[in-house]
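Mods, move this if it's the wrong board.
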Amino acid sequence: MIFSSYQFLLIFFPIVTIVYWVLNHFKYYETAKLWLVAASFYFYAQGSPAFFPFFLGSVVINYVLGITMCQLQEVTQKGQRKLLLALGVLGNVGLLGYYKYMDFFLENVNAIAGTEFVMKKLALPIGISFFTFQLIAFLVDCYRGQTKKYRITEYLLFITFFPQLIVGPIVHHAEITPQFENPENRKLNQQNIALGIFIFAIGCAKKMLLADPMNNNAAEFYNAISPSITMWESWFYTLEYSISYYFDLSGYTDMAIGLALFYNIHLPQNFNAPWKAQTMQEYWQRQHMTLSRFLGGYVFKNVFRKGCWWRNYYIATMATFLVSGIWHGAGWNFIIWGLMNGVLVCIGAWQRYHKKYPPYLVGAGITFFCIILTRVIFVAQDMTDTMMVYRSMFDFQGLFAMGFQNFWNQFSTFVMHHQKLGLLVVISLGICWFAPTTREMAERFKPDWKHFVFAGALLAICLTKMNQVVQFLYFQF
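Not the wrong board. Structure tokens:
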């Protein structure tokens, strides 16, 4: 069950929201919270019924470990906290590793040792990469003494709140739990609901009107890579994939933020016009910001050591992006993708430290070029396909050898066959570079007829297309 589906929009969400506010109206506040927890569990079970018992068990075990560490804050009890933290982190990483990386591990063991282990071919539980990070963050904060002793209801709302459960934003307990405890948030807020509808409509349009058509088209190309692919195909479809990934995840985030506002919950922003960045360091400060925040707070800071500051900064950055690459997928291409981004971020950090910035358009153009190149290795099925795409992208010898007439015929034919999607790419780039962000639009929002018509038109168009449900790219992740 995804946000952009009739089942969610016309049945699940209205029922959950109405019952929640009816319970709050009659001051059954704890019952309302339990209702929201139960609805969130149901939401998850619809997507991963086989994994749901493990998800439930993991959530409960992490709560017990975290609360136990909160009670062991004496200096003499540090060893016990370390043991509980180690058990919790290993348990979470082990569960994630089994489902997400087992086949990758067996494949490499077979290649190195000549064994014949059979691949598990496990279905990846939805959202496991995202809620695993939140559980680990909760445990680390409990170990550090940065959390209070949450009641089980408060904890469950933080972990399972369905708008952000599957694909984020990755939230911190300190920014979610107090909102549910705030008495003012127990009152129906029409302004928040109007804003929520507006933001949801923008996210839905990003997903359905921009991301889905481009993603479907680019996926056909990347699923059938051959040595005969042309330069135009490689650049165009990689650009399509790059844009579609951005609009798919940022669209989901907008939808999540909009839905949460129905419950007076403000989720953190996840994107801030990343394609306007001048360096790759700035890009990752604007792109998937809650993931960057988690990796910075729980990986970078634990690796970084004082001393030779810049040397240690580079080491910590590379370690952080190695973890990011592994987190994004099971395959050597993801590891290389993470390390490539790490190197590019280090270059951006060097530029910032020495204040050696090129003119903005040059820097933004180079960053855009790097985004496209790194996307190839992210979406290709293996390194063989990756290298074929890279070779075709830079096959200038073959380009010049064909002569001007053949070059023009090939180019014009490609353009003629990709008019609609080419126009969609141009419109999407225009939005990325020149349009205000969703956050900026939300800050200027007023519940007037202009915003109502705008949101209504987007939702009406999207509703006509929901008979063809397309999963979010990060849904089963």
